[in-house]
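### Sample
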Amino acid sequence: MNRKKLQKLTDTLTKNCKHFNKFEVNCLIRLFYNLVGGVERQGLIIGLDRNAFRNILHVTFGMTDDMIMDRVFRAFDKDNDGCVNVSEWVHGLSLFLRGSLEEKMKYCFEVFDLNGDGFISKEEMFHMLKNSLLKQPTEEDPDEGIKDLVEITLKKMDHDHDGKLSFADYELAVRKETLLLEAFGPCLPDPKSQMEFEAQVFKDPNEFNDM
């Protein structure tokens, strides 16, 4: 991408980006094209497909839960075309790295609402908790322990007692206790990963190392 195009794209994306300045947006655009390994070719969608994106989540941010990584990919891929384009990359990372509590609550709820019906059901909680908990070899049926955990979670978070979590339930619980933001699995970077990513990316763009 030539300098003029890069400048224009940087200006456009910076206007609509809450949490990054122009220099940071420029760095993220350069990193994006570095990761997709090429320049934009006419008529061809350039983006990070599911596998490439999940690899970034795993290697850079230490995520290991396949189900959660898949949902994070969907949260970034706003137009549902199967790849994260440069605009989705910058705007997604803006929230992912520096979003307000409000933005992060909406994002996490979207990740945890597996079927997109506006609620986190008992079944969805069960699947996510089963995935994210370490498999401990015990004599007891592990599924029973997870079912108990679902009931405990509902007791704590289901304020209208309808057996599922609406966004209102979730928001109320998280505002009381922010640790519940990622109650069903880690879908945001931990502070160490975030600092390392920003330190590596927000520097002279000519110095990029492969990530």
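Strands lie at 48-49, 83-84, 119-120, 165-166. This sample (EF-hand calcium-binding domain-containing protein 1 isoform a) is used throughout the tutorial notebook.
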